[in-house]
Amino acid sequence: MSARIAGEVSPHGADDVTVTDHHARVRIDMTVRPALVVHADWSADTRKRWMTMAWAHGRAWRVEAPEPVGPLPWLLDRLCGAAQGGAVLLGLDLPIGVPRAWALGRPEPDFPRFLRGLSPGDAFACVCATLAEVSPARPFYPLRPLRGITRTEHLRALGFTAADALRRRCDRATRDRPAAAPLFWTVGAQQVGKAALTAWCDVLAPALATDPARLRLWPFEGTLEALVAPGTVVAAETYPAEALRQIGLRLGGSKRARDVRAAAAGGVRAAMERLAARPSPALAACIDAGFGSDAAGEDRFDSLVGCLGMLGVVSGARPAHGPRDAVERAWEGWILGLDPDQLVPA
Question: Which DSSP category does 191 fall into?
Fold first, then answer.
C-alpha cells in the first residue's frame, strides 16, 4: 500500500505502515480498491434499516437504489457473495467504539477484543429498566421512556460527573452539526444505543468470534489501505449528517420531508458526478421521487448520502482522517472522513 495514516499499526506486520503525524491527513491511494462499497443507515427498527451499494467499474462507480439490509445473521455472507471474492467496505451509521472514560475500567486491551468476547445474552447488552440496575457492567439506560428521568442521573449512576464523559471525541459537536447523543442513552429521537447494540451483538461480535480474518474494524486494526483485501469486509463508522457536509450538500429544510429530499436531487446528482458515481435507473428514479413518501424515505436518503461520503474517501477526494491518540485507536474509534479540526473545542 502506498499511503498510510497517522501512526496506526496494521495487524499484518510492520511493513504495512509508515508512521506520520497524528493529524491523519493522508489521502487514500489504494492499490487494492473495494469491489463493493456499502453504506447501511442503521436502526433498531428493521423497517428503517436500509443500505446503498456502489460497485467499482474501473475508476468509476455504479450506485444502486437503496434496499433493505435484510436478515442480520447473513449480512456479511450476502455482501461477500455479491463481491465475488473482492473486498467490501461496509459503512455503518452507528457508534463503533466506546467512550474512553468507560473503557478505562475494562480488562480487554481494545474494542475489537471486547466485541469478540460479547456473547448472546451478555448482561452488557441488556438495557436497564431502572437506575438501580445501572452499572459499568450494564451501562445502557433506559429501557423505555420514563417521566422525569435525566441524563445527569444516568451519568452519576455510572460514576461520572462531566457531561461529556459518555461521549467519544468524534461524537462532539462540529462547526456544522450538534453533538451526537451519548452512546449509552437509549431513548429519544437521537439515541443511538439500541441501534449500536443490534449491530454489535447480531453482526460484528459473531463475525469476530467465528471468522476474525474476514471482518476487520477500521480504525482499530489499521488503515483502510492495510485492511482492504480480497475476501474481507472492512467495517467503518459513518454519520450521514457529517457526510452531507463532506459531499457539499445543503438541504432547504428537514430531510424528513419528501419535498426537501426531492428538491435536493440536483445537488445529489452533482455530488455523484464529482465522484464519478453513476446512478442505476432505479436509483435515478428514487432520487427524483425524493426517496418515497413513506416513513423510511429519510433512511433511504441517508443510506445514499453516507455511501457518497465513503466514495469520497475511497476515491481520494477526501482524507479518511483518524484517531489522534492511542486510546482513540484502541477504544473510541472514529467517524470515516471526519476532520478533527472541525470539532468544537471541549
Answer: -
